[in-house]
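tool_call predict_complex ligand=S-adenosyl-L-homocysteine
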Amino acid sequence: MSDAFACAGDVRLKPGRDASVRRRHPWVYRGALAGPLPPGVAPVRVLAANGRPLGAALPGASGRSLALRMVAWDEEPWSAAALRGRLLEAARLRERLGLDADAYRLVHSEGDGLPGLVVDRYGATAVCQLFERAWEAYLPDVAAALAGELELANVLVRTGDAAGASPSAVLGRVPEGGVVVREGALRFEVDLVRGQKTGLFLDQRENRRRVAALARGARVLNLFSYSGGFAIAALAGGALRAVNVDSSEAALALARRCCALNGLPVRDDDFVTGDAFRVVRSLDAAGARFEIVVLDPPAFVKRASELQSGLRGYKDINLHAMRLVEPGGLLLSCSCSALVGEEQFAQALSAAAVDAGRALRVLERRSAGPDHPVSAHCPEAAHLKAWLCAVN
Ligand code: SAH
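tool_result ok
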């Protein structure tokens, strides 16, 4: 096939280490490799110990235990046609979902068969996030395929997770100032240049909607608010007030602008800059109570070594959040640590409720929306837990 991408060579797995790849799991760990990887970031062909072809893979950053991410299976070549096919498939899935928003995740890495590549759409601008340098070589193909299928003026790229890394344009230009996107009847200003993630926490869209539907007449506390998405949804749903807490002044300034953009009242008391771990304690001491508390902290567990300290963090912040819930009220407790499993999260919440002296019931185990598909072969890529709980 003429459009196959050139491979850097073959990589053999140790005997018996091909089973997970044959079950279509896209990750190969360094310990499974029989020999060293060729240098560089070009794709490699992956072979079982007996020489049977397993597919093609992109190399991970050297030093990390995740050595390869599979991009083609068996004899199928990793080609421009395969890449294009998967991008179009990803775009068609979002169309089929009828998301009622012009901001959504267009490509979700393993969940769209493109491991290491994330593309978020903000109206006419798509922002690519590359979790492996190997993806840089394919950016022109990615931009051409997406712009050919969707009405996109700009395709930008952000490399890695690094906060503060400005995006650059692969196609079009980097929009100056914020862009405004729509989620149902709501509008959000998104800072594509300095914002967190690619600009907006798209994974919480369906959960914002859920909170809006529950919020009539409620006093709402939005902990780790970023640009105030949950508070804005709640106010639009009829909440009496919604207090945002975040340690970032810039995030709260954006939250104020987003409130105003939706014609909602902007009261100084509703934007609290500070460490949420301290603010929950001082709110409790002051006797503040809320019918709905949303708790959406950053990932406390980014690597396995942080598991125990991270779980203590989840327990502590949930304990104090629960104390602020008016009896009979609701807590939407989130964790975006992929390394924290459902069982561990449940235990942290249980321990927090015992210490808070409250009865806790889990009403809905929610997650990211359907524009964040999770491969059935790679369930550990699911990151977001957003559990709606009743607190008595
Ligand atoms: N709930 C938000 C996303 C939250 S992201 C949404 O739906 O859009 C996590 C946020 O926590 C970031 O805005 C970050 O600035 C903030 N943050 C991180 N550590 C914090 C702390 N100790 N106290 C308060 N906010 C913190």
